[in-house]
Design goal:
There is one protein chain. By secondary structure, this protein is an alpha/beta fold. It is about 35% helix and about 15% strand. It contains 18 helices and 18 strands. α1 links the parallel β1 and β2. α2 packs parallel to α3, α9 crosses α10 and α10 runs parallel beside α11. Cobalamin binds next to α1, β3, β4, α4 and α6.
């Protein structure tokens, strides 16, 4: 066989993510992988936990894959007061697959890409792909199916060297482009829409900013790579035609560049697509009322601001690229246009004190119509500046397994229980604060509405719960894992 041709493979792609907070998340990464593999002529199928249906084993026995790709999105829920790990779910999934198939397993995904070596060892899979997966899985399949090439030349690939060791080929972030075109199965889009989940759509990859705790530039690279407005509008149109009611622009930050924002919105307006969407925005004075108006006309109905704190010294020490004035101006503009908005706040990171916390709470009370999502402590990930700070004083860093026992940074003398108690007290009077996952009653109400076919946007539920006066009182501190207070 000449080295340019290869036998098409049957590839089963597996999404085992059962976490359903704030809602079940559409496996967009797998849609991209499926799009790339189909372009090379491979026969693919996605096995998904949503909606519950055929068992994984039955799907394997029916489909008879030549190889199986597994997506690991989450390693844990990143909540210090209510920690939950998903590593055991991966191991169970691998065991189920091994029981019915000898096909090689290829593991990828954002969670995997944060702790690749450790998860590769634990899971025993044949191959791992770190970071963006499209180019690497195409080359790997070409190699597996007789098309030649060299495993050592596939950027981001992990494989076993046959002598008990692992080869990790360094990653290279693509110079341009957004990873090709995802393959969306209309039935899967419909299933997630029935769950009330906004469907993910990506307009760019990469983030050039350097917030101290953030893994996003490690997963997607530091260079922003933009898709054209036309491409985004076409995908949005495809989703609208499939009955999708709400979309989430999953870019790490949508407004890395205002020209990109305008280009996307203008293309959507030109294409006449009518579909609501939400996105992560970086609060900036540069988000002018006019820009927000353009976004609103193009479908924006909800903003998630990655604000983290309302105290300027804390923002500086978190490495944020804006100050409270940016937050105030952006919030007031959103409110004036009646666009729902949420601020994500991380209490207890480097530089936080009781005083800075109180300043954040007082400023939060003054912003018009805002919702707040709070986390306590900062999850520490390898490769981030926070990792260096948090592990500096650990006696034996090599022995610490922060995959299985998540490490959270908490600025001494603050404690998880202390911050949690303060936030609980706040919730008595402020129903616009959510701490961790919503309470069981809230989740049950959402499930009931979905069962009645009301798969609306979760923000409508949030507002409904606020009107009912029950607030969003999240989970209490549980479990043995308390954040490690690191100096
Ligand atoms: C957008 C987003 C959200 C949105 C999702 C909106 C939506 N409707 O889709 C919201 C806000 C709801 C959310 C919630 C949560 N999120 Co989130 N989220 C993201 C974000 C920013 C982008 C995810 C995305 O869609 N990327 C676009 C797709 C195309 O990329 P991808 O999935 O990574 O896939 C690529 C590669 O990973 C790879 N790949 C993926 N699968 C496979 C499979 C194979 C076989 C191969 C070869 C390759 C491969 O190739 C793909 C294409 O290049 C990431 C951070 C980031 N920048 O990656 C965090 C991230 C995924 N989230 C994370 C977490 C923790 C959560 C929550 C648990 C937070 C919480 N406490 O509530 C929840 C869980 C939700 C759930 N039910 O699972 C973590 C996961 C790691 C971890 N710590 O466990 C991340 C990485 C952020 C972080 N802290 O580091 N999230
Ligand atoms: S927190 Fe947001 S802006 Fe900061 S580095 Fe991460 S993705 Fe970029």
């Amino acid at each position: 066989m000449n080295v340019d041709s290869f036998l098409p493979a049957r590839v089963l792609l597996v999404n085992f993510n059962t976490y359903d907070q704030p809602y079940p998340v559409y496996p967009l990464g797998l849609a991209y992988i499926e799009g790339a593999l189909r372009e090379d002529g491979h026969v693919t199928e996605i096995w998904d936990v949503v909606p519950p249906g055929e068992s994984l084993e039955a799907a394997v026995l029916r489909f008879r894959p030549d190889c199986i790709g597994i997506s690991m999105r989450n390693i844990d829920n990143a909540q210090s007061h209510n920690p939950r790990s998903f590593t055991a779910d991966l191991l169970a999934c691998v065991a189920q697959l091994r029981a019915v198939s000898a096909a090689p397993l290829i593991l990828g995904g954002s969670g995997f890409s944060i702790f690749p070596e450790r998860i590769f060892d634990l899971s025993g899979v044949e191959f791992g792909i770190v970071g963006e997966g499209e180019a690497a899985i195409r080359s790997l399949l070409r190699w597996l199916r007789g098309g030649g090439g060299d495993l050592g030349g596939i950027a981001g690939l992990m494989f076993r060297n046959g002598q008990g060791g692992t080869v990790v080929v360094p990653r290279v972030t693509a110079a341009s482009g957004g990873g090709g075109v995802p393959h969306h199965d209309p039935a899967r889009l419909a299933a997630y829409t029935r769950e009330g989940s906004p469907l993910g759509l990506q307009t760019q990859r990469g983030c050039p900013l350097r917030c101290c705790y953030c893994t996003y530039p490690l997963i997607e690279g530091r260079r922003s790579r933009y898709r054209s407005g036309e491409e985004v509008a076409a995908e949005l149109g495809e989703m609208a035609a499939s009955g999708v009611r709400q979309v989430f622009f999953v870019d790490s930050v949508f407004n890395t560049n205002n020209e990109h924002v305008s280009e996307v919105c203008e293309a959507v307006l030109r294409a006449g697509v009518k579909l609501n969407w939400e996105c992560f925005l970086r609060p900036r004075k540069g988000i002018t009322r006019e820009l927000l108006q353009l976004m609103q006309r193009a479908g924006l109905n909800h903003i998630e601001f990655g604000s983290d704190s309302f105290s300027d010294p804390v923002l500086r020490s978190y490495g944020k690229s804006f100050d409270f004035e940016d937050i105030r101006v952006s919030s007031e503009s959103a409110s004036a246009l009646n666009i729902r908005y949420t601020h994500f706040i991380i209490f207890g990171g480097p530089g936080e004190t009781e005083l800075t916390m109180e300043q954040t709470l007082a400023r939060a009370a003054a912003l018009p119509k805002a919702l707040y999502f709070a986390t306590i402590g900062m999850r520490v990930y390898p490769g981030t500046p926070l990792w260096q700070l948090a592990t500096r004083h650990e006696a034996d860093d090599a022995a610490a397994d922060h995959l299985l026992e998540p490490l959270f940074y908490l600025e001494p003398p603050l404690t998880v229980t202390g911050i949690h108690t303060r936030l609980k007290q706040l919730q008595q009077t402020a129903s616009n604060w959510a701490v961790g996952d919503p309470p069981p009653a809230f989740i049950e109400t959402m499930a009931k509405l979905r069962r009645r076919g009301k798969g609306a946007n979760m923000w409508e539920y949030v507002e409904l719960m606020q009107r009912l006066g029950s607030g969003l009182q999240g989970t209490s501190p549980t479990g043995p894992t308390q954040p490690s207070a690191t100096p």
